[in-house]
Amino acid sequence: MRNTVNIAGVEVDSITMSQAVDKLKLFINEDKAHAIYTPNAEIVMEAYKDEGLRSILNQADMLIADGAGVVLASRILGLNLPEKVSGIDLVRNSFSMDIGRKTRYFFFGGKPGVAEAAAENILAFHPNIEIVGCRNGYFSKEEVPGIIEEINRAKPDILLVALGAPKQEKWIHENKDKLKAKVCIGVGGSLDVFAGKVKLAPERMRKAGFEWLYRLYQEPWRYKRMLRLPKFMLLTVGIKLKLVK
Ligand code: UDP
């Protein structure tokens, strides 16, 4: 049973990081493909306006709060999510998860060579996992059946889909039933981080909830997308005061 809280129409799991890892283990042992999405404030804001995206997020098997903005919104609404459970941290923690055998990963997304570079870096620190396939994230519609076949031949436990949001959520939703992966996680730019191409904010900055500020400094062209963050906060206050639904 999922324990969720409704943030601007999106049902986010009220879950800690360690509970999320336990759930991931359960999913790996079940005989179906599960979808995990990791919306931040920008995506919740987008889903508020886009009913299709909202419905995709609300059909997830686990939806975790990726970012201080979503946790802050939950506090404003009096719903108190226990903590931020970012997608990249969940994936990192999964590398040391014990499932009684090597966990199998497929990395799908990023520019050519990024998934392979990420795999090499990760394997250097986590020899106890297996990376059973890599595929860049640039493809035509016609190539999708071939990509699914490639993933299915590799039989991963965990498929990381790094196409950026909301493309990755839509891709997973559309193809989940054809995939022989136990868990599909939308991970945004995480493969770029694992590959060493993009830096995460320093730990103390991330803990303090300022990862967005660091991102703005590193990728200033994102400012337009990031303007959704203050709008999201205003929306949350509006919902709290019952000014909007
Ligand atoms: N990407 C991809 N295929 C596409 C568009 C994007 O593989 O058609 C990749 C891109 O190379 C990058 C990631 O998706 O690695 C998007 O990262 P971003 O940080 O923009 O995602 P966010 O975390 O903001 O969703």
| Through-space gap between termini | 26 Å
Outline? globular
Query: Could you describe the largest sheet, including whether it forms a barrel?
Result: 6 strands, parallel
Strand residue percentage: 15-25%
Ligands (ions, cofactors included): uridine-5'-diphosphate
Unreliable sequence segments: none
Strand pairing plus helix content: what structural class? Answer: alpha/beta
* Fraction in helix: 40-55%
Let me know the average pLDDT.
95
Strand ordering within the main sheet: 4-3-8-7-5-6
Number of helices: 13
- Give me the Rg, rounded: 17 Å
Total DSSP E strands: 8
- Order of secondary-structure elements: EEHEHHEHHEHEHEHEHHHHH
Structure commentary:
The chain has 245 residues and is an alpha/beta fold. Helices cover 46% and strands 15% of the residues. The chain has 13 helices and 8 strands. Strand 5, helix 6 and strand 6 form a beta-alpha-beta unit. Helix 2 crosses helix 13 (228-240). The longest helix has 13 residues, at 228-240. The chain is globular, with a radius of gyration of 17 Å. The relative contact order is 0.17. The structure holds uridine-5'-diphosphate. Uridine-5'-diphosphate (UDP) binds at residues 109-111, 137-138, 162-165, 167, 188-189, 191-192.
